[in-house]
Design goal:
Strand content: 35-45%
Helix content: under 10%
Radius of gyration: 15 Å
Largest sheet: 7 strands, antiparallel
Number of strands: 9
Shape: globular
Order of helices and strands: EEEEEEEEEH
Mean pLDDT: 90
Length: 149
């Protein structure tokens, strides 16, 4: 996948040797990220890659997901398209991103050509500058291209 992003949104590829039920592909953030996963014995727990968003901060998490029986039709949000693929987008005040100080959570589920699979984009935005950063996210999504359609 390729896309254009603001220069202030640094890319941090996810690196983890263990098995997870989801696969984070990439983080984009206005601040440094940390390894979000910790293993204690046989259990691995993953959290957010930043502890707290700074004022005006952005964190965008790209994940490859799969679940038997998943369909875009049952996913909440308004229909859209990303990279030529069908998608659904939901925006909430606070939402999941409130755990790291986010004022707005934008979740985009992008259908994959493979059954039961999708690309999940979760964007956490903290004010000030929410409208500007949401427009930047819109531009990023509009520029997204997948290697295989």
């Amino acid at each position: 996948m390729t896309f254009r992003r603001p220069a202030t949104w640094k890319a941090y590829p996810f690196r983890w040797a263990g098995e997870l039920h989801f696969h984070p592909a990439l983080y984009l953030s206005t601040q440094p990220v940390r390894d979000p996963c910790r293993t204690n014995g046989a259990a691995t727990v993953c959290t957010w890659p930043v502890r707290r968003l700074r004022p005006g901060g952005v964190l965008v998490v790209w994940e490859d997901r799969g679940f038997p029986g998943w369909t875009l039709a049952t996913t909440p949000g308004r229909p859209s398209r990303v990279g030529g693929r069908s998608a659904k987008r939901a925006t909430t005040t606070g939402g999941a991103c409130s755990a790291i100080g986010g004022d707005r959570t934008i979740e985009v589920a992008i259908a994959s050509p493979e059954n039961d699979n999708w690309t999940q984009v979760t964007a956490c935005l903290r004010g000030p500058g929410l409208a500007r950063n949401e427009r930047r996210l819109d531009s990023l999504l509009e520029s997204t291209r997948f290697a295989s359609q």
